[in-house]
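Box 3.1 A note on notation
Throughout this textbook, protein chains are presented in two layers. The first layer is the amino acid sequence; the second is a token string describing backbone geometry. Keep the layers aligned when reading.
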Amino acid sequence: MSSSQATNTGEISKPSKETADKNRFIRGYIQYPARAKYYPTKDGKFKLAMLETFSTAKFAPIPRGEFPDLKLLDQSSRSSPAEDEDGDAPPDDIFTAADERDWHNIERAIRRAQLAAFDVIMCNYDMNWFGTLTYGWDFDEASRYVDVYTALKIWLSNRVQRYGFKYLIVPEYHKSGRIHFHMISNNPSIEVPKGSVIEWKYALDLAPAENPQGRAIYRNHKRVYNITAWRHGYSTAMKIGDTEEDRIAVAKYLFKYMKKQNGQKIGGRYFLKGGELLHPSYAYGSFDELKIEDEPVYSSYKEIGQLVYHKQSFI
């Protein structure tokens, strides 16, 4: 769908030859004046998330592997490494100037990382558990990322391979100097035969959390669980609500910890992600061809030299 058109109802059609003839070519690829971003929904359709337009053709659908996928390119722009499974978010806009420095660059990098994380959270509706993973005091190297990450990577890889686990994790330094992780994930299961009985084993292996008096623990009126599969220390998990607003609230909570890093990315990354994640789909063409009828909840304009950039958000 990345090189095709889609209406806000999820109908897909190819760009017309007339539109292609009107648009510029760059590095062998056609550029278009408008790009719409869509998130997949539970019923297999698409939900309009964002519409970006330029006063001239500037968007080019680039196949993954040649240049960064779905990048907005200028004739002077250069490709950068694509987002890897455990990596940082690639740039998603062209607002790059040679004289940008220091905090302004850090703010932009944080916003890009937040947008990339938001895409993952909104596209993967089966990731409906929010948890925290903390290392115990018996883990002597909990303040050294390389040691912490090694143990975490083994734990995550095991669940991805065995269960079909999907996750997005934001690391944070606790005030004690030790690293812990905020995580949104799914909780898939596998069949485990035991004699003539089939049992289901879950990736997180959740157990209801209780206080020292044996009473159930609730937070914001939601039952709190412990992730018993996490044996390196303390853990908690709570079910995320089914609404779009619930997912947005979790995203904003994670954004707080990304911004808290102030550009000092823990382990060189704002977040980790893995598993068979769904990503946004994009449609390209003219504004008229994209047939956007929804009313945006947010709209902004920006002048870039002689160009005008218009962004509309629908979530």
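The chain has two domains: 5-82+279-313, 129-274. The helical segments are 17-22, 102-123, 145-163, 244-260, 287-290.
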